[in-house]
Amino acid sequence: MSGVELIVLIAVLAVLLLGVLGVGLVTSSRRRKQAPRQASTDVATPPPTPAPSTEQPTDEVVEGEAPPVAEPEVAEPEVIEPPAPALEKPEGTASRLVRLRQRLAGSQSGLGRGLLALLSRERLDEDTWEDIEDTLLTADVGVAPTQELVEQLRTRLRVEGSAAGDAQQVLREELVKLVDPTMDRRLQISGADGAPGVVLVVGVNGAGKTTTVGKIARILVAEDRSIVLGAADTFRAAAVEQLATWGERVGVDVVRGPEGSDPASVAFDAVKEGLDTQADTVVVDTAGRLQNKAGLMDELGKVKRVIEKQAPVTEVLLVLDATTGQNGLIQARVFSEIVDVTGIVLTKLDGSAKGGIVVQVQRELGVPVKLVGIGEGPDDLAPFSAEAFVDALLG
Ligand code: GDP
């Protein structure tokens, strides 16, 4: 009897065990099937549940919805979302001018102080005037402007006296005259008839062109203008990347093409974007390979022609490196023969004691220096003014 009972007991236990195992297998396989089915229907119908309605990326909503286990993932990508508030606020014009003075006073003070010391001598003899000439020539003022200035100083100081105070005042006035306060140095950044202003930036590689385009964008953003940048220096991959970074920092749209693509087509697209988005100004960077004049002429000519199918170019800025002296002047000549330069940006004035180049280049091209680069910082570009420049020279 106990043997039969034992067999029955074993049989019952076996049945129970099988039952438990069986149910377990069914549920787990059902779970496995359910999960993907639910997920795929969510993808097909984007707005199934109105839960996190403000979220834009539908993928994240889908992931969070499907299995309850995936829920914590929803919060995680949100951290990546806000690049917008990280935008930088570029510096306004007033404090840039203060910095222009400080920086120039540092790098150019040799010229100003040297001239003042010479003019303050007891007797202004021929040797002194020669020293004055040499000082001006060393600072790249150029032969003709130097002779003019010396002539003016000689005449005025003979008549008005050469006491230290007078000499400084006379020198200031004559230098301002030489730099020419009457030139119109405003940037032409506005278009007509609903078109954006188009600023074409040209110059040899290394002059600081791309950096200057980025800095100009910041000046315009500081003035609350809407800007599009065109990265048409497609021959230098780094230039395109560089400009994209400048744009990102201040939230400005940068139109770019693949490396080696036609600069004119990038310029065209940038101006089109400017028109479509009703931007105030489009600033176009260009390639500055000086391999031969004909090639450069073809390239820049085409860029300008293609842009002008949509909107006139309102400003052509030539970027010149102040530290290159006479070489910079030769470049300036070449570019002005190719495009109609309307303004000069003199870069690296912070690192050069040859600020006199301002005078020479203006005379040579007959166009004003409109902006000066005074350092590598993002806001180290200042509007040029004859008075501020001369005051900085004289410390
Ligand atoms: P690009 O080839 O003409 O586009 O020249 P980049 O814009 O790449 O500039 C070349 C170098 O000049 C970079 O290292 C810039 O930081 C530097 N640079 C540009 N402008 C200035 C300036 O005003 N002062 C100084 N010190 N460096 C500058």
What does this structure look like?
The structure is a single chain. It is built from 14 helices and 8 strands. It is of the alpha/beta class. Among the domains are: about 95-180, Four Helix Bundle (Hemerythrin (Met), subunit A), CATH 1.20.120; about 195-385, Rossmann fold, CATH 3.40.50. Strands 3-2-4-1-5-6-7-8 form an 8-stranded mixed sheet, with helices on both faces. Strand 5, helix 12 and strand 6 form a beta-alpha-beta unit. It starts with a helix and ends with a helix. The model is unreliable at about 20-85 (pLDDT under 50). Bound molecules: guanosine-5'-diphosphate (GDP). Guanosine-5'-diphosphate binds near residues 208 and 374.
User: Could you say what the CATH topology of the domain at 197-385 is called?
Assistant: Rossmann fold
Mean pLDDT: 79
Rg from C-alpha positions?
34 Å
Going by CATH, the architecture of the domain at 197-385 would be 3-Layer(aba) Sandwich
Q: What kind of sheet is the major sheet?
A: 8 strands, mixed
Global outline? elongated
Number of strands: 8
Which regions have little confidence, pLDDT < 50, spanning 5+ residues?
A: 18-83
Estimated structural class:
alpha/beta
Portion in beta strands: 5-15%
- Text of the CATH class of the domain at 197-385: Alpha Beta
What series of H and E elements makes up the topology?
HHHHHHHEHEHEHEHEHEHEEH
Number of helices: 14
Which strand order does the major sheet show?
A: 3-2-4-1-5-6-7-8
How many angstroms does the end-to-end distance come to? 121 Å
Within CATH, the superfamily of the domain at 197-385 carries the name: P-loop containing nucleotide triphosphate hydrolases
**Oligomer type:** single chain
Helical proportion, percent range: 40-55%
Bound molecules: guanosine-5'-diphosphate
